[in-house]
Amino acid sequence: MILWTFRHTKPFNPNDVCYGRLDFDVSPTFDQESSAAIEDYLKTDAKPTRLFSSPLIRAYRLAEKVSQATGLAVEKVDAIQEINFGSWEGHKLTAVPRDEMYAWLKDLRGFRFPNGESFYDVDKRVGDFLDTLDDNGEYLFVTHAGAIAALMHSRCGLPDEKFVEGEFSYTMVTRFEFKRNEDGHFFGSFTKIHDGIQMPPLKMGV
Question: Which domains are delineated in the chain?
Fold first, then answer.
């Protein structure tokens, strides 16, 4: 099975707060960012038959443009939404409780954000959806850093110690190739196709 993923464009986040499920719109650079990513994607041999998008605006806006370029209808899927940061949503990282921040830094992927999810939770929900797809199919996701990293970690063997969730560029395009194992789960490898606008470093204040 072949899977192509687009990370969303830069969100409009003027207050630089923590966002996962916060439904931010796109930044003024949306057209430039999205066009460059789609142009590089169209240079590949991609032939997906279905286009899935996170329902969050910053992903769905890009999915609409990908739909126009490919002729595929957009199907919204809750399973490929971004991680839920719980009580951290809408707050600057420098303002979250220090004990929670230290607990997260000790276990970046395993820590469950208060009233939210852990990155392992994202691994499961994204992986569960992946496993419903056809072995011989080719698909496209327009989604988020957490969902893409979930595939890299849980299905492609990327070590937890390499916390790529905080390193991805906006509009990054990635190609995954998967095969199903005897337990019915897809595992494989990935290749980056397009790099977009690099995220600023996380300001954790510790």
Answer: 2-198 (3.40.50.1240)
